[in-house]
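The protein record quoted in full:

***
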Amino acid sequence: MKSKCLSSPWMKPTRWCLIMLVCLMNACSNDSSPTGISDAESLEKLARSGDSAAQNQWGFNLFNGYGVAKNPEEGLHWIQKAADQNFAKAQYNLALFHQDGKGVELDLVKAFEFMLKAGRKGLPEAEAALGFMYERGQGIKSDITEALYWYRQAATHEGPCRKSVDHFKANLLPQREEQYLYGDRDAQYMLGRIYETGKKGVFINIEEAVRWYEDAAVRGDTASQARLAVLYGIEGKPFIDKQLGYAWAKIAYESSPNAQMKKPYDALQYLLSPAEKSMGDSMCETLKELVTYNLKDLDLAP
C-alpha cells in the first residue's frame, strides 16, 4: 500500500509505504550483547538461569540462526519467556512477529497489545511504532492525539541535549538552544511530516515541522535532510535560504544517491549562482562534520 503522507513531488516517504513503521526498523529487536556474553553455550546457560535479557538474545539467535542452528519455534519460546518477565525488547519482538505473521499467526490486535506493553516501559522504538499504529489505525482505532503523544515520547527520549562547553557548535545547529539528539529519528521525521502537511485535528505548523526535521537530520536521517532542502531551498518555508537548502540536499544525496534525493539537489544546483553554490558547499561541509560528530558521539548507525 503506497503512502500518501506527503504531496510534494520532491520527496515521497517510501520507507513508510509498508504496513507499519516497525517493519522498517530491524526485522527483530535485540541487544547485540545484552549480557556481555558472545558464545552460545554461556548465553544459553544464562538464559536458562532466568535472565530475561539473555532469554531474549538466545531466542533471537535461535529464531534467526545466528551462531546456532536455526530453530524458530524454540527461539519464539525463549522470547516469550523473556516477555513474560516484562522484558520490553522481548515484548517488542513479539509485537513484530504478530504484526508480520512471522512464526505466529498475523494478528494486529495482539501486535498492538505487545507494543503497548513495550512502549509503556519507555522503549523508544516501541513508542515510535505505537505512534504509527495509532496514526494509521493498525490494531487499534485511529487516534491522532495518541499518535502525537507516542511519537513525542520516542522523539524526546532522554530529553533535550542542551548546549554546553564541550558540545557548543559540536552537536547542535547554531540557531537552536536545544535539540533531542537521543530521540528516535523515525519518530522525529514523522512529527515533522504531520506538522508540515497537517492532519485532522492538527494544524500545519512549518516552524514545528522544521524543528523535528532538524533533530533527525543532524543525526543522519536522509528523509529529513531532503525535506529541509525542499522547505528552505525551494518552497521558502519558514523562510528562503537556498544555500542552506542546497547544503542539506547535497548531504542527503551523497548519503543516499537515488532519484528522490537527486531531484532537490539538481533543482537547487540550477537555482544557485556560482557564488551561492560555493557558500552552500562550505555550509555543507560544516553540516557534514556535525552529522559525523553526532553519529559517533551517540554511537548511532547512519
About this structure: The domain at 88-162 is CATH 1.25.40.10 (Serine Threonine Protein Phosphatase 5, Tetratricopeptide repeat). Residues 1-27 have pLDDT under 50 and may be disordered.
